[in-house]
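Contributing new complexes? Match this layout with nicotinamide-adenine-dinucleotide.
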Amino acid sequence: MTYNIALIKGDGIGPEITAAAVRVLGLIGKKYGHDFNFHEAAAGGRAIDEHGIPLPPQTIDICKKSDAVLLGAVGGPKWDTLPGHLRPERALLGLRKELGLFANLRPAALYPSLSAACPLRADIAAAGIDMVIVRELTGGMYYGDRGRRMSEGGEEAYDTECYSASEIERIGRTAFELASKRQNRLVSIDKANVLESSRLWREVIHALSAQYPQVELTDMLVDNAAMQLIRNPAQFDVIVTGNMFGDILSDEASMLTGSIGLLPSASVGAGRGGLFEPIHGSAPDIAGQNKANPIATILSAAMMLRYAFGLDREAGAVEDAVSGVLLEGARTADILGAGSGPALTTDAMTDAILAKI
Ligand code: NAD
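Output block (do not edit by hand):
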């Protein structure tokens, strides 16, 4: 099969880490008989430098015509003083909107070989952490009506949490489908004891659950969920929640695994395709030094193989190679434990993963 991939290297460490993922995909293609064609497109800071805007129309065009998008990271101090609509991060919001990506899948898994990096008590870490948070990405308070107005108490500001039944249903479906492919356990997180939008969320998710009898559905209030992630993270398989709760809880969950240099993400819509990127930023402090951990981006490429192209075996080969090299002690600087070393460079870690594949 031939797959066309839009490649947005981005800023900071973006070019280094996407180069690693491209090498891995090249080897997977050779081994399993696929052609991965990369179509480079500019977004973020680089696009601002080259085209004056963070998301040029030709980039949107390349992404829409491709089977999936692989992205490094955007942003950096050089562009920090630009007005909001010209900031590099605007490219991400624009791409999500243009590509109709309403679901963000964020796995958080603790590798047994890195359990010492988990900030939780050893007995809690030992129970294992392997969850995926499905966050609604294009609705809720981040997109709701907002403003400022004068009131009796002086100036006031408001943001509105608003979800339609159809928005809830489509994210719910994504989560039920995912849970069906994993351990058939889904926790839906809301604040239904206080918020009307959460009460509708709960009604719609419950109605949908009738179509997925094999999936065990549990409701959890968001404040309890924040505690349970620390107290007993092993209980979670798939979590589904709205935009704001998901934003906060997915960062909390990522900390449980030790390093943001390890965590991939996918943003998907109704069809195949999607945008695949590490959860971390462009790490300007280590850019260009061959120090960045390429694993989050390599695992993002694995998510692309699985979710955009349906290539489960190939995705598994990449994931197994990553856990294999970690088990054998390969470490970049960000995951180097006290007393171990020396740290591998970005290239050396990539070489180790390629050798394992
Ligand atoms: P960051 O994630 O870039 O870096 C935070 C810390 O983690 C830094 O010390 C960095 O060196 C380290 N780190 C990050 N990725 C690493 C990797 N792969 N290997 C080793 N260490 C790694 O967050 P930040 O410093 O807050 O943001 C830097 C820039 O990135 C900002 O301009 C921000 O807006 C942007 N950003 C972009 C995205 C994105 O493109 N999706 C996401 C977050 C932040």
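Reviewers usually confirm one structural detail per submission. For this one: The mean pLDDT is 95.
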